[in-house]
Write a structure and sequence with these properties.
Layout: H1 4-13, E1 17-19, E2 31-33, H2 35-54, E3 59-61, H3 71-75, H4 78-81, E4 83-88, E5 95-97, E6 117-120, E7 124-126, E8 136-138, H5 145-149, H6 151-158, E9 164-173, E10 188-198, H7 203-220, E11 228-232, E12 244-252, E13 255-266, H8 268-277, E14 283-285, E15 290-292, E16 295-302, H9 303-314, E17 315-320, E18 323-328, E19 339-343, H10 349-360, E20 365-367, H11 373-382, E21 387-391, H12 395-398, E22 400-405, E23 411-415, H13 419-428
Parallel strand pairs: 3-9, 19-20, 19-21
Antiparallel strand pairs: 1-2, 4-5, 4-6, 7-8, 9-10, 10-16, 11-12, 12-13, 13-16, 14-15, 17-18, 21-22, 22-23
Helix pairs in contact: 2-9
The structure holds glycyl-adenosine-5'-phosphate.
């Protein structure tokens, strides 16, 4: 399996991910996506949106503000309970999460540790010009709370009936005590969450349904079912809102780790917000002629963790003619670029660039004229581009180009005029 160091280095070298604030020495827990990484991130979010929202008639989307009324977080329980136990080393002053330590002494220097105290993970800010207790607000630690607070508005406009879901993709922030493992645990990240509202007596059925569906989604983006596993939470591990929870885990270079949580949140959130806002958040079931507070089955997955899993899964090293070839065998539809066009020589730049501009109307492509053709293949293997198209001197007379396929490295000569249809056929396979 690829090591984290190899992956971090590949990500920087090829423009997937850079350390945030790099020129200032970095800021722990923050990462920036580069021109290649941003494309892969978009593929993940688009695939999720299509699978969870566009292909279903009973799930609708929203895009809510990052900062919500501070009472939201009192009602949700985050002000009271969203904390991790923290200890300090009395000697070297380093901070750790108490629940992640094995022994009683500092893992860095062996020094004595302080008593554990609770540290709230929400980032605080102030809204408006006055900085006092009354202006405190929080950067959301999860995207779902505004789905609950907007439940009635969405219900009214979407004409949905139970069961139905509300989905959202967006940034979340947690002042993690120990950000680590590259983009796995960061202080700013992106979540893709869906809250599915059901009649209370149908909770188990929908929990099982969504767990299966989410495994299907990972398979659809290229992570085979055998590579994920389900882990049910023990009673003592459950988050303060959850009645039941199952994680979808994947084997990272640092061990099996959570990509997604499927949680049974019961009527906890809607009831809490109804209580704190004084607004009625019940659902009127016209067939049964009764008001119910729906139960919620939540699916919550990190974009960044999914991206890391895709990179780990796709990374391959092969030996080709005595040389190491690094290739990202991403599913072609998930690749940052679908095709790259190379002019064999700078003399052929004009027609090659014209072909690439033409392909851009339908595909996500890259134009690459730097270095030898071998170097360009290596560059695109490393970012997972499934097809590389070379425009050479013969192209001028035979009106054909050479297409090289990433995984087999087989080359094929095709008519320039057929390039679009050729790629369409390949992507529709
Ligand atoms: N609304 C439920 C919720 O937020 P969670 O298990 O705390 O549940 C859901 O988070 C998902 O969000 C995780 O499975 C993970 O993919 C992602 N996530 C959570 N904290 C993260 C962090 N510090 N860095 C990166 N991703 C994180």
């Amino acid at each position: 399996m690829v090591s984290m160091d190899e992956l971090v280095s590949l990500c920087k070298r090829r423009g997937f991910i850079f350390q945030g604030s790099d020129i200032y020495g970095g800021l722990n827990g923050f990462w920036d996506y580069g021109p290649v990484g941003v494309e892969l991130k978009r593929r993940i979010k688009d695939a999720w949106w299509k699978f969870m929202v566009l292909e279903r008639e009973n799930v609708v989307g929203v895009d809510t503000a990052i900062i919500a009324h501070p009472r939201t977080w009192v009602a949700s329980g985050h002000v009271e309970s969203f904390s991790d136990p923290m200890v300090d080393c009395k000697r070297c002053k380093k901070r750790f999460r108490a629940d992640e330590l094995e022994g009683k002494n500092c893992p860095e220097c062996g020094g004595e540790l302080t008593e554990a105290r609770q540290f709230n993970l929400m980032f605080e800010t102030h809204v408006g010009p006055v900085k006092d207790e009354a202006s405190i607000a929080y950067l959301r630690p999860e995207t779902c709370q505004s789905i609950f607070t907007q439940f009635k508005n969405v219900l009214n406009v979407s004409r949905q009936k139970l069961p139905f879901g509300i989905a959202q993709i967006g940034k979340a922030f947690r002042n993690e005590i120990n950000p680590r493992n590259f983009i796995f645990r960061t202080r700013e990240f992106e979540q893709m969450e869906m809250e599915f509202f059901v009649r209370p007596e149908e909770d188990k059925k929908w929990f099982e349904y969504w767990l299966e569906e989410r495994l299907n989604w990972f398979e659809e983006i290229g992570i085979a079912k055998g590579k994920t596993r389900i882990r049910y939470h023990e009673q003592h591990e459950l988050a303060h809102y959850a009645k039941m929870c199952a994680d979808i885990e994947f084997e990272m270079p640092f061990g099996w780790a959570e990509l997604e949580g499927i949680a049974h949140r019961s009527d906890y959130d809607l009831s809490q917000h109804a209580k704190f806002s004084g607004k009625d958040l019940s659902y009127f079931d016209s067939e049964k002629n009764e008001h119910v507070i729906p139960f919620v089955i939540e699916t919550s997955v990190g974009v960044d963790r999914t991206l890391l899993a895709l990179l780990v899964d796709a990374y391959h090293e092969e030996e080709v003619r005595g040389e190491k070839r690094v290739v990202l065998k991403l599913k072609p539809s998930m690749a940052p670029f679908q095709a790259a066009v190379f002019p064999l020589s700078s003399k052929l730049a004009e027609p090659a660039a014209k072909l690439e501009m033409d392909l851009r109307k339908k595909f996500i492509t890259d134009y690459d004229d730097v270095g030898s053709i071998g170097k360009r293949y290596r560059r695109h293997d490393e970012i997972g581009t499934p097809f590389c198209i070379t425009y050479d001197f013969d192209s001028e007379s035979d009106h054909k180009v050479t297409v090289r396929e990433r995984d087999t490295m087989l080359q094929e000569r095709i008519e320039i005029d057929r390039a679009k249809d050729y790629l369409t056929e390949k992507f529709n396979k």
